[in-house]
Sequence to fold (573 residues):
Amino acid sequence: MMILGVRLPWVCRSRGYAYLVLMAKQPKSSSSSRMSPLPAAAISTLVMICASALLGLAFLSMLVHDLDRHSGPFIQLKRGTVHPMLARSQDLQDVPSEGDISSDSIWESPSAKFFYGCSEPREEFSFSGVGFPSKANGYLMIEASGGLNQQRTGITDAVVAARLLNATLVVPGLDHKSYWKDNSNFSDIFDVDWFIKSLTSDVSVVKELPAAARSKYLKRNHLTSMRVPRKCTPQYYQSKILPILQKKKVLRLTKFDYRLANKLEPELQRLRCRVNYRALQFTPEILNMGNSLVSRMRQMSKRYIALHLRYGSDMLAFSGCYYGGGDKEIKELGAIRKRWKTLHVRSPERERRNGKCPLTPKEVGLMLRALGFGNDSYLYVASGEVYGGEESLAPLKALFPNYFTKETLTTKEELQPFLHYSSRMAALDYIVSDESNVFVTNNNGNMARILAGRRRYYGHKRTIRPNTKKLGSLFLARHEMPWDAFAAKVKTFQKGFMGEPNEMKQGRGEFHENPAACICEKGVGAHSPVDPSGSYNDTSYNYFDEDQLGSYETEVLHAEGEAAAEELPLFSD
Fold:
């Protein structure tokens, strides 16, 4: 029989198929056969039917298995949703190259000119004010933890704490041991002389302890160190910390980040602004390099976009989301996620639906194009490690070919003095981002928040935060609608997330991102802030809720066993 000469596919090697073939092999004259053999034509037909059925079942099994292993125990996707792996492979042919050239409002807010930063103190708040003690209660030493911008918040709050305690502040020390492993000191990043001079009317600051105090407290190891709880009130400092300072005369507060309440009385909030926006100036070396980068961007285009892209493996693992990388991503991010033993297993689909997933580089590019920025726009990207490397960045570069970083704008020799110091490299990105016409971020980490607040203070420069709660599901459905419909939805969803002066609600909120007590409206009068309490509430922006948000950046410290059980730190630069 001809069928005996055919090499059969492996999927057909089932017991049923083997039985049919054996039957075909048996000679018709075999007396030992218990069954009469079927005609050759019938056998051939049955073989073909069986083979086809088995092939279909095998293909279906492989497809289900493939989707299952991409979802795995870590991924749970509803039926009917577009799997991120499929969305990731879609091309960009339907995306127009032109932007919205009919209006300049995408580059700046028409109403920004009516607001300005105002942080001058009232006369009675200065050292010469009535009732202010003339003698300090002792020396306050601070160790600011985290990366550059987390340290910035710690330094800002350290000045306010020194004011509350009527203490002489020793120039804060910086974290040298955590995730960033940067041994830079305060004077390597900030202009220490300017810092001391600019705060003369608010707080007494010295570079180091006097010789006698160093001998007594440091050399003899008599220094009292403690860590205050997160977001302490002024009353806590004055009732719990002040007596210790008065008794010991020198006190060190360790891991000082977010150790002061968000909501303070207006004069203390304005002091925060004076520290953050005036006293903390980068060193001349950092400023010169940063300004050179800005100048090079301006030489190519009169206006540019700066993107702070946080897409490192640590952040993605912490988010609990899925980004379309299949087994490899699940395995790699799952291993990193084990660093944080307190994190619970989350449903990636629910996290995306709730706006907890940072946008991918491709999604950032699509959002910007939908808002009206064309492919002729110049893009500066402030970024560290990008998970997936060039593969992840390729769609963003295709959408915005005028793509630059500090590495592409400089020579190796120019960047060499900064290369091995993560905080100094972050400072360069900070300067270029701050000077940009439009600042956009895919995350809500420390740098994004600090820069958002600074840009509000200095004229409400366009600052775009993605409405991840609405955009997350929209991106999954992008190819179910024409581009014009998609772009219209993006513009609708982004209303209230474009850095407009009055887009934030009063109530709760992070002061460093929304310094309301330090922003005044023209024509209303000096010291008439938009929100006298200095507090905003924006409950719709929830990529990381408030408690979890502060935690990502400092949670890295937990991974190295350095943080206490009582705190959940901040991850951001």
About this structure: Residues 129-279 form a domain with the Rossmann fold fold (CATH 3.40.50). The chain has 22 helices and 15 strands. The first strand starts at residue 115 and ends at 117.
